[in-house]
C-alpha cells in the first residue's frame, strides 16, 4: 500500500499531523493507499495562510486571474491520465467516465476563466452615478463529496480563485486523492496561500464550518450535513452555497415514443451508478405504457457490464462505499417487502468490492421508501400514473427539489408540465445535464444558492454599491 502525498498549506507540502488513514478501492473493498490526516491546528494554519494571501491576491488584475485559470486547465489536461486513474481507483467509476470527468474539469476551468465580473450601472443621471461592483469575499472553505470528486472540487475552487478569493479545500475522506493532486497542480500557478488543502475524517470539516476567519463555505453533499453547516455558519454570518441531496422526479407524458427516450432515461438515472445529485431517481409513467417502459429499461440494464472500472469493457462500476451499498440494498429490500417487483438486479454481488447491478423496481408508488428517499445508487423505482395531474402531484410530493424532467413528443405540452415542477432545474427530454453556463441550484431541501454561469460566479463576491454624487 502506498502512502500518498501531503496536504498543502501556504504553498508548501506538509505532513499531516495525525496518523494517516486508509482509503478504499471500491472495486476491491480494500484499502489501496493511506491519506494524510490534518489536525485542527493545521486547519487554523491553512486558514491563516489563506487570509494572509488574500491581502494581496484580492487585488490581482482580472486578466491575470483569467490567465492563471487557463494555465491550471492546461495542467489538468497535461495530467489527465494520472487524474483519471486516481478518480477510478478511489471512486470506482469506469475509466472512460473518469476521463470524461477530467476533461470536463479542464473545460469548466476554462469557461470559468473567461467569465467576466459585471459592473452594473444602476443610475447615471445629473444627480448621481450609481454602480454595482462585486468584490471578493475573503477565505472560501470548500467541502466536497465522493461521487464526482475532481469535478466538484473544480466547481468550487475555480470560481473562488477567478473572483480573487483564497481557498481552503477539504475533500471527502473517501475520495481525497484526486483533489490533493488538483491542489498540487493549482499551487504551481497561484501565489502561496491562495489554495490550501486539509484532509481528514470527521472533525476537519466541522473545524472549518465553525472557523471565524472563513468567510464563505461552498458545500456539496448530504442535506443533514448542509443543515449542520448552516447552523455553524451563523456566528460570523458565512456566505453559503449548499448543493444538497436530490430525489429528482421524471414524468413521461402519455403517448410518448418510448424508443426515442428509453436510452436517455436509462443513462441519466444510472449516471455514475446513480450516484449523482441530479440523477433521475423516480420515474412516473402512464399506466398504458408502463409495462413497455419497464421492459425497455430492463433490456438496457441487461446490456451493462458490471466490474472494476479499470477493466476493459466494463460499463458499470461499483458503488463507492459500503454504507451507500447497504442503503441501496436496504431500500430495494424494503420495496420488495412492500410488494414491489424487482425486475432486474436487486442483490449485491457476492465477493470483493461494493458491486450492485443496475436495478429496476416496478409496482411501487409514493409512500415506499425507495420512492420517497434519495437512494443515491443504482436502483430506479418506476411508478404508474393515470393522469398527468396525478403524476405532477406525486412528483412534487417530496422534500427535495433539485432537478426534475418531463419527456414527451409535444414540447409545448411538456413545457407546461415542466414549469409546474418544484425544482431548481426542469429538463425536457433530458435529465442531469449540468453545464458551465447554466445556473444550477436546488429548491426546497436541496440547497441554497446557485452554481455556474455569471450567477454562480457572483456567489463568491460581495456586492458593493459605488455612489458618486453629482449634485
Ligand atoms: P456527507 O454530507 O456526510 O459528506 C460530504 C462532505 O462533508 C465530506 O467531505 C465530509 O467529510 C464532510 N462532512 C461530513 N460531516 C460534516 C460536518 N458536520 N461539517 C462539515 N463537513 C462535514 O455525505 P456522505 O459522504 O456521508 O454521503 C451521505 C449521503 O449524502 C448520500 O447517501 C447522498 O444521499 C448524499 N450525497 C449527496 C451528494 C451530492 O452530490 N449532492 C454527494 C455525496 C453524497 P468526511 O468525508 O471527512 O466525513
TrEMBL record:
UniProt keywords, alphabetically: Oxidoreductase
InterPro entries in the cross-refs: Ald_DH/histidinol_DH (IPR016161), Ald_DH_C (IPR016163), Ald_DH_CS_CYS (IPR016160), Ald_DH_CS_GLU (IPR029510), Ald_DH_N (IPR016162), Aldehyde_DH_dom (IPR015590), LUC3-like (IPR044086)
SUPFAM superfamilies in the cross-refs: ALDH-like
GO MF annotation: an example: oxidoreductase activity, acting on the aldehyde or oxo group of donors, NAD or NADP as acceptor
Pfam families: Aldedh
Key word Oxidoreductase present: yes
Active site location: 243
Domain Aldehyde dehydrogenase: 19-464
Protein family per UniProt: Belongs to the aldehyde dehydrogenase family.
UniProt name for this protein: Acyl-CoA reductase
Amino acid at each position: 500500500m502506498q502512502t500518498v502525498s501531503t496536504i498543502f498549506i501556504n504553498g508548501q507540502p506538509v505532513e499531516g499531523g495525525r496518523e494517516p488513514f486508509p482509503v478504499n478501492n471500491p472495486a476491491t473493498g480494500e484499502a489501496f493507499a493511506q491519506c494524510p490526516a490534518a489536525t485542527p491546528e493545521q486547519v487554523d494554519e491553512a486558514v491563516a495562510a489563506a487570509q494572509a494571501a488574500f491581502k494581496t491576491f484580492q487585488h490581482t488584475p482580472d486578466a491575470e486571474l483569467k490567465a492563471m485559470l487557463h494555465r491550471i486547465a492546461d495542467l489538468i489536461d497535461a495530467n489527465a491520465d494520472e487524474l483519471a486513474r486516481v478518480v477510478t481507483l478511489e471512486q470506482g467509476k469506469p475509466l472512460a467516465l473518469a476521463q470524461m470527468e477530467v476533461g470536463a474539469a479542464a473545460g469548466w476551468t476554462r469557461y470559468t476563466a473567461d467569465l467576466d465580473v459585471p459592473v452594473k450601472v444602476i443610475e447615471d443621471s445629473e444627480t448621481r452615478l450609481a454602480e454595482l461592483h462585486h468584490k471578493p469575499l475573503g477565505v472560501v472553505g470548500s467541502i466536497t463529496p465522493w461521487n464526482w470528486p475532481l469535478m466538484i472540487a473544480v466547481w468550487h475552487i475555480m470560481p473562488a480563485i477567478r473572483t480573487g478569493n483564497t481557498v481552503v479545500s477539504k475533500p471527502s475522506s473517501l475520495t481525497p486523492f484526486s483533489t490533493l493532486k488538483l491542489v498540487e497542480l493549482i499551487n504551481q500557478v497561484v501565489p502561496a496561500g491562495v489554495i490550501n488543502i486539509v484532509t481528514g475524517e470527521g472533525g476537519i470539516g466541522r473545524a472549518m464550518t465553525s472557523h471565524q476567519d472563513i468567510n464563505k463555505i461552498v458545500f456539496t453533499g448530504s442535506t443533514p450535513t448542509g443543515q449542520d453547516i448552516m447552523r455553524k455558519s451563523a456566528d460570523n454570518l458565512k456566505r453559503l452555497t449548499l448543493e444538497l441531496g436530490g430525489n429528482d422526479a421524471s414524468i413521461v407524458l402519455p403517448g410518448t415514443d418510448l424508443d426515442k427516450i428509453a436510452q436517455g432515461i436509462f443513462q441519466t438515472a444510472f449516471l455514475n451508478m446513480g450516484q449523482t445529485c441530479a440523477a433521475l431517481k423516480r420515474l412516473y409513467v402512464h399506466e398504458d405504457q408502463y409495462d413497455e417502459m419497464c421492459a425497455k429499461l430492463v433490456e438496457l440494464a441487461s446490456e451493462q457490464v458490471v466490474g472494476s472500472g479499470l477493466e476493459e469493457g466494463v460499463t458499470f462500476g461499483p458503488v463507492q462505499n459500503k454504507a451507500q451499498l447497504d442503503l441501496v440494498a436496504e431500500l430495494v429490500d424494503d420495496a420488495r417487502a412492500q410488494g414491489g417487483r424487482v425486475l432486474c438486479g436487486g442483490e449485491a454481488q457476492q465477493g470483493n468490492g461494493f458491486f450492485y447491478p443496475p436495478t429496476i423496481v416496478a409496482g411501487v408508488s409514493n409512500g415506499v421508501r425507495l420512492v420517497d428517499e434519495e437512494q443515491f445508487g443504482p436502483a430506479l423505482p418506476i411508478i404508474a400514473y393515470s393522469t398527468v395531474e396525478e403524476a405532477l402531484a406525486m412528483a412534487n410530493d417530496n422534500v427535495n427539489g433539485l432537478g426534475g424532467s418531463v419527456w414527451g413528443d409535444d414540447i409545448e405540452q411538456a413545457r407546461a408540465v415542466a414549469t409546474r415542477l418544484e425544482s431548481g432545474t426542469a429538463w425536457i427530454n433530458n435529465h442531469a445535464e449540468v453545464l458551465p453556463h447554466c445556473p444550477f441550484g436546488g429548491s426546497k431541501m436541496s440547497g441554497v444558492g446557485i452554481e455556474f454561469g455569471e450567477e454562480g460566479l457572483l456567489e463568491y463576491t460581495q456586492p458593493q454599491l459605488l455612489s458618486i454624487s453629482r449634485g
